[in-house]
Amino acid sequence: MLRHDGERTPGFKLALAIVVGLVLTIPLFSVWLLVYDRKTQSEEATASITAGWGGPQAIAGPVIVIPYRATATETVIENGQSVTRSREVRRELTLAPEAIELTSSVRPEVRKRSIYQAVVYGAQMTGKARFAFPPDLARTGVDPSQMDMSRAELRFGLSDPRGLGANPQVKVDGQPLRLQPGGGSSGGRGFFAWLDANGLNARPIGVEFAFDLRGNEALSLAPQAGDTRWTVRSSWPSPSFGGEFLPANRSVTEKGFTAVYRIGNLALGRSLVSTGDAGATNVIERVSPPSRTNYATTAPAADTGPVQTAQISLIQPVDPYSQVNRATKYGFLFIGFTFLALLMFDVIGGVRVSAVEYLLMGAALVLFFVLLLAFAEVIGFTFAYVVASAAIAGLNTAYSAAVLSSWGRAGFIGGLLVGLYAVLYILLSLEAFSLLIGSLLLFAALAGVMYATRRIDWGGRRAATEA
Known about the structure:
Order of helices and strands: HHEEEEEEEEEEEEEEEHEEEEHHHHHHH
Number of helices: 10
Radius of gyration: 34 Å
Helix content: 25-40%
Strand content: 25-35%
Shape: elongated
């Protein structure tokens, strides 16, 4: 790959730049691992900040659970013959409200520890519900005379009872009830109250409730009523609406948001009345990255199908780790464009660039992402981007002035880097069009290089033939 006079051929210079670029993939990959490690540390710090406060909260209910006696038959084989036996079992009928109106006032708070921060909230929950037996109760196969109405339970499900405030208030037809811990007498998460439901046989009963709740990241509701109306108000300006149901109306401003949900039981795909074995409870696992919340609903295990929720997350508007991670993926473009410029000066301009000089300038480009990560944790992504890009562009410009023996050529390198950093910031901001913009830039760069090098003798064959 050397000419007879010892001069390196253009093909050799290209191969040299490629080899150095491949070597730089090792530290670039290490930067990716560093971003992942710092993100993990951030999640651990966030968990320690919110420890004892309350996790992402999911609420369910209220529902009325009434025990009743039923006859169960089973067939067994005795002495080679089938024998059918009957026995009395205890089961539970779960009655969801005909309608429920729930209002949540969420008060967010940002808590910090060192350079890390977490969003927690306190919520004031108020609501009222109306319960009544459906006219077609007989279709459930439950004999009303077998129901023990005096031992009914009014149950509220809650994913993390640690966040429940003091002195929740629950009233039935204006009469306060004494609350008990747990999702019911058979266990679970939440609170419940014993209820004499004999009045249900004659008329609907009304339930009013109010309680305070603490949590972090997200607030979810598992609707079960025939008509659910949930109104959420907060001063947090960056909510994320998720789950299986979206609000019917919402308003998001810099001063906060208001969301109104309207959900019917036809959309839920379940009846207001269900039956199941006594003590059986549905346990649902709801995943809300990066947190995992397990909570028990008040629905019996006989209810089939996944429990659907409406969820509101109080997200941070900017996640520096995800942005740095995305920026790092463009590291090869930075190295490639810079090496390409040096190669053009080497091949066309006649300025010899050694492998060490390629390596040092490439190392500076990799260092940009480390600086970006370090500063982003302290001063935010935007300011960190400006500081890191200015530092690396200035460093490589000054160094290339000595390598290329010209401040004019160094100015081209500096302008190229400034343009690349500006384009990268635009790509990070316009996530939906990043692939389109990036591919067009690559096409333009490739076309320019092909035009500029169309007459270059990459293998030195022409020079050898002329000699």
